[in-house]
Specification:
Helices cover 6% and strands 36% of the residues. The protein has 418 residues and is mainly beta. The chain has one domain: 6 Propeller (Neuraminidase), CATH 2.120.10.
């Protein structure tokens, strides 16, 4: 099995391996992990500290199971102000309202979505004034006469039944391939909706979207969903960096991304993006207006095309990278703001989808600085597809294969086996 995985990686790069794992492992990717005794479960709260990351400073945590019975979860979004109610997205197009206290769940939306490779129902965002307007925004794939597209759609959620009624499409873009459709959407502290779409696939950005300022692909977009420009279901904020600049999409906030699957805002308002790499490097970047994050000129901090002497003028470095010995597909998370784990406080927690490793990074304070080596939360036998953060600042992870949700807790909070 390991030879098959290695061969697939050599032939197709990270995106081929990630798609292979998604399609062929409906349970945890256990082939890369030590195996328990026959018939036994994984011991609760016990990660492995191995490989090159074993030399990093450890932060002991446990994974406390809080929900199960899901199917390929892709996003966890807590209802604003709540530490128990959340929206759970599944790749198959189902969005569920889940109460962690009672385990009651109800269907919010069921979409007919293509699910090939990295397509599906991928991201959700509650409007900052959700308690007043009930607006929910979804990022999902759709099949049209013109081929596959990514759509940002708007919904109104009933406060009692939690069912959602469609309010129309906000934005769509044609996707040339089934991978690198990214997933996250998030409202910033400025009230704008940030949409991160990948370069459109397949590998090595064959259409050159990453460095094309005219396209919406390979970019981080920033739009105003509370207003509408003529002929659009949204407005372009007038302070976007390329408004009025010929040859640039005015919706773009930053360019040069490969597949920003997950991103979030730090407490100080900075946008932290985890961009999935191809052959060698995964990266964490702090993204500001008007920046170019390098893909496909560079992968991480290293030349990609051309392979040497690519230059770095005008390109923004990531604050952290890791290589193939540690993982093959980064899953971005959040800054931990909870009260249970003091050593984790104010650290940005992220993971690798394939290897199951989890880290905690102190984000650098100054622009242009590289982060210090992260702390290590260990390697876990699950495919971590996404993170969630509740109103108390606690973090949660979704196990894509097992269909479970775990809370990242202090070691003595572990309950049950994984």
């Amino acid at each position: 099995m390991h030879r098959l995985i290695f061969l697939l990686f050599m032939l197709t790069g990270c995106e081929g391996l990630r798609a292979f794992v998604i399609r062929h492992w409906p349970q945890d990717y256990a082939t890369s992990h030590p195996q328990p005794a026959a018939g036994s479960e994984w011991p609760a709260g016990v990660p492995w500290y191995d490989g090159p990351d074993a030399e990093l400073t450890p932060i002991p945590v446990s994974l406390e199971r809080v929900a199960e019975g899901l199917e390929e979860p892709t996003d966890l979004q807590f209802v604003p102000g709540s530490s128990s109610e959340l929206l759970v997205l599944q790749k198959n197009g189902l969005a569920l309202w889940l109460d962690l206290r009672t385990q009651e769940r109800s269907e919010v939306v069921r979409l007919d979505v293509p699910t090939k490779s990295e397509q599906g129902l991928l991201g959700a965002a509650f409007h900052p004034k959700f308690s007043a307007n009930g607006w929910l925004f979804l990022n999902h794939s759709k099949t049209t006469e013109d081929g596959a597209v990514s759509v940002i759609s708007k919904w109104k959620v009933d406060p009692v039944t939690h069912e959602a009624d469609p309010l129309g499409e906000v934005l769509r873009v044609v996707q040339p391939y089934g991978n690198h459709n990214a997933g996250q959407i998030a409202f910033g502290p400025d009230g704008m909706l940030y949409v991160g779409w990948g370069d459109g696939g397949w590998r090595a950005d064959p259409h050159g979207h990453g460095q094309n300022p005219r396209t919406l692909l390979g970019s981080m977009l920033r739009i105003d969903v509370d207003r509408q420009d003529a002929g659009k279901a949204y407005a372009v904020p007038p302070d976007n960096p390329w408004v009025g600049v010929q040859g640039h999409a005015p919706e773009a906030w930053a360019i040069g991304f490969r597949n920003p699957w997950r991103y979030s805002f730090a407490p100080d308002g900075r946008l932290v993006v985890a961009d999935v790499g191809q052959d060698a490097w995964e990266e964490v970047a702090i993204v500001a207006a008007g920046q170019n994050h390098g893909w496909k000129v560079r992968e991480g901090m290293h030349c990609f095309e051309p392979s040497e002497d690519c230059g770095s003028n005008g390109l923004t470095d990531p604050v952290h990278v890791y290589g193939r010995q540690s993982g093959m597909s980064i899953t971005g998370g959040y800054v931990y703001l909870g009260a249970d784990i003091a050593s984790l406080k104010d650290r940005y927690v992220f993971a690798d989808f394939v290897s199951g490793r989890v880290w905690a990074l102190r984000l650098p304070e100054m622009e242009g600085q590289t982060a210090e080596p992260p702390a290590y939360l260990g390697r876990w036998p699950i495919l971590i597809s996404t993170f969630g953060r509740d109103a108390s600042g606690n973090l949660y992870v979704a196990a894509y294969g097992k269909g479970r949700i775990y809370r990242i807790s202090a070691p003595d909070r572990a309950s049950g086996s994984r």
